[in-house]
Specification:
The protein has eleven helices and ten strands. It has 261 residues and is of the alpha/beta class.
Length: 261
């Protein structure tokens, strides 16, 4: 087992699974981060877009932005969604790629995968496949997708360098990446990083923005562009979460980048 700042990466992953199992199974519950349809609207999803999805898809949404602002998905593309959850972005991508394209929804939380499979069936789509796994070890061949998308997930990954290398590996030459994620402006203390529960709540696993963007460049990705940044945690129901996020300068960013052709 790999240690991360004095605690076990398996503890981080277990805490993340527990948190998102609750989001899948108890969508009516109030969490420390925005969830559900109101969260979709808060981060920028158009309401007609949401109306086209089954309610059971949107109710467990826990993304932090609108990665589709990048505008890189085209008809016929093969898309990988890392941390697909209940399927808001998966099914949105499925509409964009059309029946001649395909979408893989990758998640490590069994309850979310079960919910995703049910939502795929409810939506009646045939071009989506649910995959079990995580960002550090993507179960797809090299150069197998045209676009990688992710929404509020990579900040939860203990080994970001490995995850970004995996994104580069599965992306075809000339392919694109669209991501919404959490970054911070100030270093996070080791006592906070040593709390798996705080990792699962999206703050302490986050990187300083410049470091985060540089990790993508080091993985080989180019044209790394921040499209939008905003105060995601202003939508939190928890005063403590808003205070901690504010002290760290935590915010959401939406990014577009590509793999050299």
């Amino acid at each position: 087992m790999v240690a991360v700042l004095g605690f076990n990466r398996e503890q981080i992953l277990a805490a993340v699974r527990d948190m998102y199992t609750a989001v899948a199974c108890e969508p009516e519950r109030v969490f420390h981060f925005p969830t559900g349809r109101q969260a979709c609207i808060f981060v920028g999803y158009p309401e007609p877009w949401l109306d086209a999805l089954p309610a059971t898809v949107v109710e467990s949404f826990a993304g932090v932005g609108l990665p589709f602002r990048a505008g890189v998905i085209r008809r016929g593309h093969r898309v990988l969604d890392i941390g697909s959850g209940s399927g808001t972005d998966v099914l949105s991508a499925a509409r964009l790629v059309g029946p001649e394209g395909g979408v893989f929804g990758l998640d490590m939380t069994a309850a979310m995968l079960d919910k995703l499979r049910g939502n795929i069936e409810r939506a009646g789509v045939k071009n989506v496949r649910a995959l079990e796994g995580n960002a550090e070890d993507i179960p797809l061949p090299d150069e197998s997708v045209d676009v990688v998308t992710s929404n509020g997930v990579l900040n939860l990954v203990p080994d970001k360098r490995r995850a970004f290398a995996e994104i580069f590996r599965v992306l075809r030459p000339g392919g694109s990446v669209q991501i919404a994620d959490i970054v911070v402006a100030k270093p996070i203390g080791e006592s906070s990083r040593a709390n798996p529960k705080l990792w699962a709540e999206c703050v302490v696993g986050a990187s300083i923005e410049d470091d985060y963007l540089d990790l993508f460049r080091q993985a080989g990705l180019v044209n790394v562009t921040v499209l939008r940044s905003f105060d995601y945690f202003s939508g939190s129901s928890s005063a403590d979460t808003r205070r901690i996020a504010g002290a760290l300068g935590a915010k959401a960013i939406e990014i577009r980048m590509s793999k050299p052709a």
